[in-house]
Amino acid sequence: MPENARDNIYIKWIPETVAERKERTHWVAWLVRDIVDDLGSRTQFLAYLGGRPHVTTDLQFEISELYPDLEVNWDSIRHSLESRQPQTDVQRLTDDEIVLRFRELAQEQGLSVQDVASRVRIEPRNILQETETLVLTEGNKERFVEACGSVFAYLAENHPEYAYGIMKVRLYLQGDHSLLESLVANEPSGFSVDAGRRRKEHWSTSLLMHMESASDSID
Length: 219
Description:
This protein is of the alpha+beta class. It has helices spanning 57-66, 74-83, 95-108, 113-119, 127-136, 140-148, 151-158, 160-173, 177-185, 193-218; strands at residues 5-19, 23-37, 40-50. The protein has ten helices and three strands.
């Protein structure tokens, strides 16, 4: 055991990228402790617990064998795992649910709406705040569904910059970061009339592909 170790043992949640049909990220738990040694202050990773962690007899035996001098408050570890609110599986949500809940979903991941906006590279204009104000105004949700079948479809038809922003938020929150980066890389830049036209075309094409893909997955 390193000198000057402090037995401050706790659960640390870390994003982990997994390769399935497409690369995505989910959150996994590690049993860790903070230590101070010749390398300075750092976090030592003791055991990988995965995305659905539990304190098992096998885990307790493994830690006792690997770190016989370490004292672990297993009741505290159990409480930490049980008190953590499970994160919503964003991939299973409809686009309308993303539109109506993106603030709550961001907060589950320890992010503010501003954090998400910067990470999905939404322009300085406060698109997400504008979207939230529009869809949460009393009576609008029902009106949008009646007009176009869904809130997201209404935004795609009438406010494509809002729908495109929500689509990027979905990709980020469900962990499809490589797909998001590819989408952003193809966004037209510039402030000319022609650049604005190409940007709108990019929004429309991207939204159409997204909605067709969502429809195919339902079928």
